[in-house]
Amino acid sequence: MWQAEHVRAALGERHPAMRVEILGMTTRGDQVLETTLAKIGGKGLFVKELEVALAEGRADIAVHSAKDVPMALADGFRLAAILPREDPRDAFVSNGFAQLEDLPPGAVVGTSSVRREAQLRGRFPALEIRPLRGNLDTRLAKLDRGDYQAIVLAVAGLTRLGLGGRIRAILDPAVSLPAAGQGALAIECRADRHDLIDLLAPLDDPRTAACVRAERAVSRALGGSCQVPLAAHAVAEGERVWLRGLVATPDGKRIVRAEARGAAADPERVGEHVAAELRSRGAEAILASLAG
Questions:
Q1: Neighbour count for residue 125 (Cβ, 10 Å)
Q2: Most buried residue, 21, 87, 145, 191, by most Cβ within 10 Å?
Q3: Cα–Cα distance for residue pair 86/132, rounded to 1 Å
């Protein structure tokens, strides 16, 4: 809802006479909280029901976290705008410890992401990593009642909801490489709604869009899903983007990394190059083992 309100405000600034109504929806991804996303169908669960509303004309646009948008959109839909990005990094949240390195062996760390879990296990094998689902308030409540010694969340989500004060440390991408699209908002509409596409164009941030497109290209080329510990993070450098990618086994014992720089005008090419490098360094075998 914060994301929808944010987009409504942005549209209001550019089109003061426009009336924007919010159609609140609860998706299956919001409803099923006792099971990890990887086991119930992945992040697309947050998108599918919204696309039905678009197709049926009950909604004109849908606002998503870019990281939740499937790498290949369903036929008839497109991303019309990607808004300026919040901090895309992961946050360390704890009531008793200042950073991951301070946690004692056996400390319980909660995360909802196989990507975060694999990287934590790889770097901190003595920690106990447990699943953590629910909205931010629910996750923080579980930390506060002592179920976990620490939890790892997205900086962007905490900041947007005014909970940035709970962050004890921001994890360097070298420690926890973010998910493709993390921290960015994407607006989806029907591909035939050229009126909306033109209307939304001013909301698009070219620098963020180039980074997100590069990141999504890595995941698309590797068939990325919630079941695959895969990360991709790009940084704009003038007319170029610097892209890092990672594929790991869930236990973190095998992690392959690759990076590249390339033209921001052709970010998909940069993403495909990083994906090819990852495959050549062992990602193919990891992906095959997860598919089996």
A1: 12
A2: 87
A3: 23
Residue pair 176/113 in contact (Cβ under 8 Å)? The answer is no
* Domain spans, the chain: 1-83+184-204, 90-170, 205-292
CATH architecture of the domain with residue range 205-292: 2-Layer Sandwich (3.30)
Angle between helices 206-221 and 267-278 (to 10 degrees): 30
pLDDT of the chain, 292 residues: tens digit per residue? 899 999 999 999 999 999 999 998 876 544 444 554 445 445 556 688 899 999 999 999 999 999 989 888 999 999 999 999 999 999 999 999 999 999 999 999 999 899 999 999 999 999 999 999 888 999 999 999 999 999 999 999 999 999 999 999 999 999 999 999 999 999 999 999 999 999 999 999 999 999 999 999 999 999 866 678 999 999 999 999 999 999 999 999 999 999 999 999 999 999 999 999 999 999 999 998 887 6
Cα distance between residue 278 and residue 222, in whole Å: 9
CATH of domain 90-170: 3.40.190.10
Asked if domains 1-83+184-204 and 90-170 share a fold, the reply is: yes
Q: Which residues are catalytic?
A: 68
Angle, alpha carbons 209-214-217 (nearest 5°): 120
**Which pair of tokens denotes residue 209?**
């869009």
pTM for this predicted structure: 0.90
- Note the helical H segments in the chain: 2-14, 28-31, 37-40, 48-55, 114-123, 136-144, 155-160, 194-200, 206-221, 267-278, 284-291
Specify the CATH number of the domain 1-83+184-204.
3.40.190.10
Q: How many CA atoms lie within 13 A of 21 on its CB side?
A: 5
DSSP letter for 227, please: T
